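Q: Convert this sequence to structure tokens.
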Amino acid sequence: MKFNLLVILLFLTAWSPLFGESKADSTANKWKQVMTSGINLNQSSFSDNWKGGGTNTLAIGWYLNHSANVSNESWRLNSDLNLQVGFLQNRTQSLRKNIDRIAYEFKAGYRISPKWDFYGSTNFQTQFFNGYDYGKKNKAGVPVDSLISSLFAPAYLTSSMGLEYHPDKSFYTRIGIGSLRQTFVFDQAISRAGLYGLEKPGDNIRNQFVFQYLVNVDKDVWENINVKARYSALIDYFRLTLSNSIVHRLDANVTMKVNKYVSTNLQMVLFRDYDQDPNWQFSQVLSMGLVYRIEK
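A:
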């Protein structure tokens, strides 16, 4: 029940600028909103006697991005929601995910100078569907799909306070002096496996007091090409002397617009969290599809 309540609260917060009526001079009517949704499809097929090699493949994905922001003499408020899910079907394999993400962030910045804000933010991340390790085998040598993640297993909630520097609209950086990172693992099978840095198997929540450093770039490099990149580092205050105290994450997205309704996207994630894996994790998705955009 508490899982459902948390999801409801997060989504109500994300969409709050769309709800309700207010007076003409109120802050609510000054929200600038952009919603983008699209479907990507990739397919390849070969005849049984195709000598060049290859396998029949079908991949489909869906995404929805909603952003809202308001800026006045005292405040800069930002709300960002990102939902993504995609599946890949190869002829010789079962249906598998190739992308799965739920991410929401809200930030309130109070102006202390033209280029500096004192800010408070909340960032939440998890996924929709179960994730499996397909490389394992049982004692008989038979491949076995092993559950390693699911909805709210893990989920990350990071609350941060500090300073933000934004010299222009395309760039900002944050220094989160006081930040709390919470890891939730509500699937008991995954929790008992002792994954994701839980203090002991069977735990559901882990709290970390961390220092956050974040850099964000969002820039149109050419007329029809947009580049977004976001790097964040979380440093555990109580593990400063250890080599595994830093969580690194780099998200990069290049969007190339063909026309108003068709675009190509290259998305990459570079990630390192010793509590998940001591090595760097990397994902990359190249897709082309239909896009629908609404601005208010």
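Helices lie at 2-15, 188-192.
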